[in-house]
Design brief:
The chain contains eleven helices and three strands, in the order E-H-H-H-E-H-H-H-E-H-H-H-H-H. The protein is an all-alpha fold and about 325 residues long. The protein has a three-stranded mixed sheet with strand order 2-1-3. Helix 2 packs antiparallel against helix 4.
């Protein structure tokens, strides 16, 4: 049928996490707290890395960029979800829905590539320590960070190109708290089987490639670490453990969701919340609790802040 005969829907209806008002009030308080913690915790890492010259190294530059991505990943849908908990009508405009799809794939795709870059950094540092300064210079680090954002944007544009021109002529109910691409595309008034397969291959190729690269790099690193028992290798083992935990938390829900990409199960909502809310709040906790350099830099930052407050108070009393 001619797509010109269709009138495009102006908005989509989001069913949210629950229809129970009691649960929605509870979720409002819970996710408000978690979102504030995500923003403050990750921005604290960024501020710490910026303010401490000793942390101006590739590993910590990429860690601060991971924190920025985590803030954005938590922000593309969480504030609206929190807002919707207090409103019976949970709608989003067509343009807002497409924006959510675009931003999700930019930040998630960028984070996948950045995690691979961080694994490469650890591989060079542990397996080729004498050449680390030469290989992982500032130019290479900047290229890896910029590249992760660029790949995320290109991946997202490829996903959006499949979706934005589809004829959405009637059905507009999305059983989620955000515009999940796999659910939105099924609302189109046309056969989307081929597009679903293409999008699955696009996201799957990126996700599987990133995951395999991470597995290979960490296997090589673990073998290298096991062959040595020095203090430096013990520190490397601690950092590596933090990286593996973060990778597992990020890729685990993605793998489960994309195992059944176009079927809607209740557990999908839980996994989506875990990816966009709990992973961004766990990342700063994992990295700071297991990293003496970051904790020491945060302590220095705290001392400088307290000292500046005391000096300002003294100047006011004179």
């Amino acid at each position: 049928m001619d797509q010109g005969n269709y009138s495009r829907v102006a908005e989509f209806v989001l069913l949210g996490l629950s229809s129970s008002w009691e649960l929605q009030y509870f979720f409002f308080v819970l996710f408000n707290f978690l979102y504030i913690a995500i923003v403050l915790g990750n921005l604290l890492i960024v501020l710490t890395v910026i303010s401490e010259p000793a942390l101006h190294t590739p590993m910590y530059i990429m860690l601060s960029n991971l924190s920025v991505l985590d803030v954005f990943l938590a922000s593309y849908a969480t504030p609206k979800m929190i807002h919707d908990f207090l409103h019976e009508s949970k709608t989003i405009s067509f343009e807002g829905c497409m924006a959510q799809i675009f931003l999700l794939h930019v930040f998630a795709g960028g984070e996948m590539v950045l995690l691979v870059a961080m694994a490469y950094d650890r591989y060079v540092a542990i397996c080729k320590p004498l050449h680390y300064a030469t290989i992982m210079n500032l130019c290479k680090c900047t290229g890896l960070v910029v590249g992760s954002w660029a790949i995320g944007i290109m991946h997202s544009l490829s996903q959006l190109a499949f979706t934005i021109n589809l004829p959405f002529c009637g059905p507009n109910i999305v059983d989620s708290y955000y515009c999940d691409l796999t659910l939105v595309i099924k609302l189109a008034c046309t056969d989307t089987y081929v597009l679903e397969v293409l999008m699955l291959l696009d996201s799957g190729l990126m996700g599987v490639t990133s995951f395999l690269l991470l597995l290979i790099s960490y296997m090589v690193i673990l073998i290298t670490v096991q062959r040595h028992s020095s203090v430096g290798m013990a520190k490397a083992r601690s950092i590596l453990t933090a990286h593996i935990i973060v990778v597992t938390l990020f890729f685990g829900p993605c793998i489960i969701i994309y195992a059944w990409p176009f079927s809607n199960f209740p557990v999908d909502k839980v996994l989506s919340v875990f990816s966009t809310v709990f992973t961004p709040i766990l990342n700063p906790i994992i990295y700071t609790l297991r990293n003496k350099e970051v904790k020491s830099a945060m302590h220095k930052l705290k001392i400088r802040y307290v000292s500046s407050k005391l000096l300002s108070q003294l100047s006011l009393t004179r």
